Amino acid sequence: MKRKEFERCTPESVGIPSGAILRFLDRLEYGGFTEMHGLMIMRHDKVCAEGWWAPYAPGLHHALHSLSKTWTATAIGLAEYEGLLKVTDRVCDLLPEYMPDPLPERVARITVRDVLTMASGSETEKADYAADWIRDFFARPFEHEPGTFWRYNSHGTAILSAITEKVTGMSMIDWLDERLFRVIGVDKANVMCYRGEDGTCLGGHGMFTTTEDNLRLMRLYLHGGVWEGTRLLSEAFVRDATSPMMDNAPAHAHTPWICDNRCGYGYQIWMCRPEGSYRADGAYGQFTVVVPSLDLIVSINEAAYIGQHMSHNELEQLVGQIPQGPDHPLHGPQCTLNALFELLTPAIDPDVHKLPESPEATILRERMRRLAIPCPKAIPPYRSSGDLDLTLIPDGQGISFRMLHGMDKHNKQSPGAERIRLHTENGVLTVDFTEDGVARCILADMRGGRLTGKLIYTDHGEIVSDIASAAWWNGDRLELSVLWYETENHNRYTFAFEPSRVLIHKWTEAALPDPLAERDAIYQYGGQ
Is the residue at 2 inside a domain? Predict the structure, then answer.
């Protein structure tokens, strides 16, 4: 595939002050609510600022979580434009082999549009994608009339994927490649998508693409479904996809500070506060935001912290116990959107398309070129060599080194390490451990850098990439930092050495201020 590259330019040449982008970066980097991975800013079809925080990089695909949903909705839109279905079609007519018998009246009335807008009428959702998950979807209770009740539902999006695969006769990713990727310039070989046990692409949360892939997708919507003169989506589909088709404010009444989740919902696309703006959105801040009035697209990959990684259900339990407001620190993704809408977009005049060049453009370019996630500080003298075998005591819970991208295709969570051996030599920490009876290894740099590795899980076809570093604290605590750099996951493990045992704690980056405040496992010395 040969794709047309976007023109690169200075922010001022498209009417954006470089200083506004610098202030936006300041908030993102020093606000304490996120770990940035990638950022691209486009105006008037030109990329005026872009950067990735090393080890993240332009061509590295990144877990999308629910931003996958917008790709899946687009697959439906492509099928609609090709005449393979209509959004008014009943789902029971498209997937008759999965319908319960007798067919409930509400299930019979569910349309493709209802599923696109998260309005199938069900309040429940299972967490797995077992072999019969599609049949189970339609066997669940549907408490509301289709089209009248909004409830976020990843299984519903996977139903859209199943519909796409049924009407096209190919996998959703192959369909996207044939009708979309090759046109807009996305490399299929660099796209990953999880599948259910029945082989269906799980388009509700399982895709991996690059920061620029996501920008290209939403540029198609900004241009009304047309790419370089070729129409791919119908005007009506794009209009409805990017309009508030459903009111989602009642569903977020318990978290009013997450204000950009209350602005309406289209076809697997969220509306935003600035009038006419919308976004593709995945957990932990996988955002591609479109502001049509400014002809602006901002594509972001990050690891924004949700209430110390609380779920929305857990946040709901905090109502009445915490102050409310749009800048509430418990929700990092909203803080990212606040930064965008407070610092960047207000600095752009919709009627000004070019500004005088500024010295700040050079400062910005250099800053974007040097972006990096800091390594733990090496504290010499570190222990230069030695071995330590750690055996889990009988009632221990284990320490999880394996970090999948949320879920593998069998929905099995890692049980954690059963035995750990630490070895330090020439500034490199080797962590050998057994997991499910299989020997694995992580290498960590103890000299202020990082070492790259891969953990291969042959049973699940999984290759998990990691970059690790380590450092001593006060001579008796060893901190291991593991960044799973195709995802938002950045884990730290602290080994606190006592006379006859080691206390090990695992936590997610910035989730807990004191790494020993909660202990995950206690190991005893098996030898030294």
Answer: no
Q: For residue 139, what are the domain limits?
A: 7-369
Cα dihedral 398/401/402/403 (nearest 10): 110
**Could you tell me what percent of the chain has a pLDDT over 70?**
81
Distance CA 52, CA 74 (A): 26
SS3 call for 160 = helix
Q: What is the pTM of this model?
A: 0.89
Reply yes or no: is the peptide bond before residue 55 cis, omega within 30 of 0.
Answer: yes
Write the DSSP symbol of residue 463: E
Q: If you average pLDDT over residues 178-197, what whole number do you get?
A: 96
Spatial separation of the C-alpha atoms in residues 144 and 188, rounded to whole Å = 39
Residues 276 and 407 in one domain: no
Amino acid (1-letter code) at residue 324? Q
B/e letters for 177-215, b = 16+ CB within 10 Å, e = fewer, are bebbbebbbbbeeebebbbbeeebbbbbbbbbbbbbbbb
Q: What secondary structure letter does DSSP report for 184?
A: H
pLDDT of residue 482: 87
Question: How confident is the prediction for the chain on average, in pLDDT?
Answer: 85
Residue 379 covered by a domain: no
Number of domains composing the chain: 2
Per-residue b or e along 488-520, where b marks 16 or more CB atoms closer than 10 Å to that residue's CB: bbbbbbbbbeeeeebbbbbbbbbbeeebeeeeb
In whole angstroms, what is the distance from residue 78 CA to residue 175 CA? 9
- 364 and 408, same domain (yes or no): no
The tens digit of pLDDT for each residue in 204-229 reads 998 999 999 999 999 999 999 999 99
Rounded-to-integer distance, Cα 228 and Cα 296, Å: 17
**Two tokens, residue 171:** 């996998």
Same domain, 132 and 166: yes
Would you place residue 447 in the very low, low, confident or very high pLDDT band (cuts 50, 70, 90)? confident
End residue of a domain, out of 369, 400, 430: 369
Domain limit, last residue, from 341, 369, 397: 369
Rounded to whole angstroms, the Cα distance separating 126 from 7 reads: 45
**Is the confidence at residue 43, as pLDDT, over 90?**
yes
Q: Has residue 384 got a pLDDT over 50?
A: no
Average pLDDT of 162-187?
Answer: 98
